[in-house]
Amino acid sequence: SFTSNATTMNFLRWVDFPNDYSVDWTSQTIPGRQSDGGFQWSSDHKSLIYRYDATSGRIINANDVLKLITANTTIPGLRTNIRGTEKALAEAGGTPNYNPVGYSLTAPDA
């Protein structure tokens, strides 16, 4: 359990993603791509792999895969319900689905 201590400047805890979060997906394959192999964990369970059918002649991109993924945690203080759709939302200039207060932001005059 991590306890913040401003006196010793120990107030950050780095996320240990594989141990702090559980990753799930809403569908084994991208909709309309039933011939894909779909999601699979690597043998060391450190990487999530999407196996796709390269012979289908249909293009996919990372956002197609990411929007199927969610990450959740039960650890207090860590953000939960992280969705793969956030990358596409940020690229489109949308508003984040989380409270950005407390996140480090670039100063406008930097």
- Output the helix-strand order: HEEEHEEH
How many helices? The count is 3
Distance between the termini: 36 Å
Give the overall average pLDDT: 81
Biggest sheet, spatial arrangement of strands? 1-4-5
Low-confidence stretches: 102-106
Rg, Cα atoms, Å? 18 Å
Derived structural class:
alpha+beta
Shape: elongated
Beta-strand fraction estimate: 15-25%
Overall description:
- The chain has a domain at 22-91.
- It is of the alpha+beta class.
- The protein has helices at 17-20, 62-66, 86-91; strands spanning 22-25, 38-41, 48-51, 69-72, 82-83.
- Helices cover 14% and strands 16% of the residues.
Describe the secondary structure blueprint for this structure.
Layout: H1 17-20, E1 22-25, E2 38-41, E3 48-51, H2 62-66, E4 69-72, E5 82-83, H3 86-91
Provide a quick synopsis of the model.
This protein is α+β, with helices and mostly antiparallel strands. It has a domain at 22-91.
Question: Which features does this protein show?
Answer:
110 residues; 3-stranded antiparallel sheet; elongated; 5 strands; two-stranded antiparallel sheet; 16% strand; alpha+beta; 3 helices
